[in-house]
Write a structure and sequence with these properties.
The chain is an alpha/beta fold and about 350 residues long. It has 11 helices and 12 strands. The strands form 2 sheets. A 6-stranded parallel beta sheet has the order 3-2-1-4-5-6. Strands 7-8-9-10-12-11 form a 6-stranded mixed beta sheet. Helix 2 runs parallel beside helix 3, helix 2 packs antiparallel against helix 4 and helix 10 packs across helix 11. Bound molecules: adenosine monophosphate and manganese (II) ion (2 copies).
Length: about 350
């Protein structure tokens, strides 16, 4: 099983540009995936990345529901954050699995490498199909379709469901549209494309209640707003105002309510600070700090996060840094300073560019 060959991810060395090109043969590989899936007689387990977001859960639910409609035994293994949990039916999601049944096909969605896949022992899978849109994806699995030009993994899942020949209905279209909505920040981020908008329109035609969905996706726990206030007090500017950061400590989260894992979108607020090129939210966890980075104006969050040992997209990326908040901030600031210097040098070399 070829997933074993990826035990050591082919992560680009620090600072080297990741491969943000898609594979020219992606339609053919996706067709092959659909054919093999339709012929698959064993169980199918759909998983995505750790700390799942709307694209991870939405892509997974859409695919698993389409597969079940086609008569397959398909389950999503995931523990979503509470603001997304409404998308799944009660009992529809499985907790993490220690073991896989024989002859299990695993779909890994929206996850750049096997270490980021949550909830299954991938090495026990009879086959692994990797569907993703992160340029830093290591192209793991028996079949891999990686398209960094796609705004969301859900756009690839939409193509796959079409190829599988499932009949679209609101139950499949709603989570699929969720993936597009959340990864484009409701069509506000730079990855918003004609394809994303057109596919959204197509999905709405399949019966999604668009107004109810976008409204519900923005609901937050009442205590969320207290935490938001605390976090926004920590906003700070560095590197001549080009880097904005804020942080969440474990104490702040405990104060607000430990189950509040809704802080993922705080970085989406500070990225709107005028004049910045890079925004980062530092989230303290036991012994490490999760760094969420957003970039604009040619700066690459992806390069910054690769330096920190993580990955992601050019505009949005993440990493987990060992140590405390101050160590993480120092590493982030240094990596950002290097990225901004690279930008200045590129502008001198190609003033028109
Ligand atoms: P986040 O800041 O967690 O919202 O992540 C932004 C983007 O980068 C998402 O597409 C994540 O899947 C991706 N990402 C976050 N952390 C990592 C990591 N450690 N390695 C690779 N990709 C990551
Ligand atoms: Mn994601
Ligand atoms: Mn995604």
């Amino acid at each position: 099983m070829t997933v074993m060959s990826t035990a050591e991810p082919a992560r680009p060395a620090n600072g080297t540009p990741p491969d943000n090109r898609g594979s020219a043969d992606h339609p053919a590989v996706l067709r092959r995936m659909a054919e093999r899936t339709l012929a698959w007689t064993g169980p199918i387990v759909v998983v995505a990345h750790v700390d799942p977001d709307g694209d991870a859960l939405g892509s997974s639910l859409a695919l698993a529901r389409a597969l079940r409609q086609l008569g397959k035994r398909a389950v999503v293994v995931m523990e979503p954050p509470r603001y997304l949990a409404f998308l799944a039916e009660p009992g529809e999601l499985s907790p993490a699995l220690d073991a896989l049944e024989p002859d299990t096909l695993v779909y890994a969605l929206d996850a750049g490498d096997p270490q980021r896949v949550w909830g299954v022992p991938l090495d026990q899978a009879a086959a692994v199909f990797n569907v993703d849109h992160h340029g830093t994806n290591t192209r793991f699995g028996d079949l891999a379709v990686v398209e960094p030009s796609k705004a969301a993994c859900a756009l690839l899942v939409k193509e796959l469901i079409d190829l599988l020949g499932a009949e679209w209905d609101a139950a499949i279209a709603t989570p699929c549209l969720t993936g597009i909505l959340t990864d484009t920040g409701n069509f506000r981020h730079g990855n918003t494309s004609r394809e994303a908008l057109e596919t959204a329109g197509e999905l709405i035609d399949h019966g999604v209640d668009y107004v109810a969905l976008t409204d519900r996706l923005q609901w937050r726990h009442p205590r969320y707003f207290h935490l938001l206030g605390e976090v926004m007090r920590t906003v700070r500017y560095d590197l001549d105002g080009q880097l904005v950061t804020a942080y969440v400590t474990e104490a702040m989260r405990a104060e607000a309510g430990a189950e509040l894992d809704d802080s993922e979108d705080f970085v989406g607020l500070i990225r709107n600070a005028e004049g910045i090129k890079v925004a980062a939210l530092l989230k303290e966890r036991a012994g490490s700090v999760k760094v969420s980075v957003r970039a604009r104006d040619g700066a690459s969050a992806q390069r910054i996060c690769l330096e920190l040992g993580g990955g992601g997209h050019v505009a949005a990326a993440g990493a987990t840094v060992e140590g405390d908040l101050e160590a993480a901030r120092a590493a982030l600031t240094a990596a950002t300073a290097r990225e901004l210097a690279r930008l200045r040098e590129a502008a001198v070399a190609d003033p028109a560019g």
